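Dear V.,

Thank you for sending over the compound details. I've combined the ligand you provided, zinc ion, with the protein sequence from our construct and run the structure prediction for the complex. I'm sharing the raw inputs here so there's no ambiguity about protonation or stereochemistry in the SMILES, which I know was a concern on your side last time.
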Amino acid sequence: MKTNSFEFVYDIYDSIEELEKEDAALLEVARAVTEQAYAPYSRFFVGATVKLDNGKMLSGTNQENASFPAGICAERTVLAAVSSVYPGAVIHAMAISFSSAGAASNHPISPCGICRQSLIEQEKRQQAPMRIILGGQVGPVFVIHSASHLLPFSFTGEELNKD
Ligand SMILES: [Zn+2]
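Below is the predicted structure of the protein with zinc ion bound, written out as structure tokens.
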């Protein structure tokens, strides 16, 4: 028997003021677009904003549904938008923020499991890492250098292309 371990390195900033200018701008937009989320059931409003290699920014928000499984997270909303509006664009970074009727937005939240899978698919597709910037409306900010760090042992298309 052998034992293995997994670890990854990420950066913690005390606040948005410490971030590099471009990252701060991205997080500011992600914070603002939480107001556009459609979340009448959870009252948990998420915004995800990406910076593309063509210089464009694009945002998505969570879109809930009375049939709960029909809802979609902000992260996958913006991934689908990028792929539809700017096909082939490389996403350099995605900032994710939230606001909530029931809890203070003073800490980072991280993507759910399905979104992690989708983020990794995008990284494989663009063959470049996507930085993930996580922060509430105020408070500390985490910067993760590749979405793949968030889902070790992930299932990828490589498994489907084997002879
Ligand atoms: Zn999600």
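A first observation: The pocket of zinc ion is lined by residues 73, 75, 111-112, 114-115 (CB under 6 Å).

Warm regards,
I. M.
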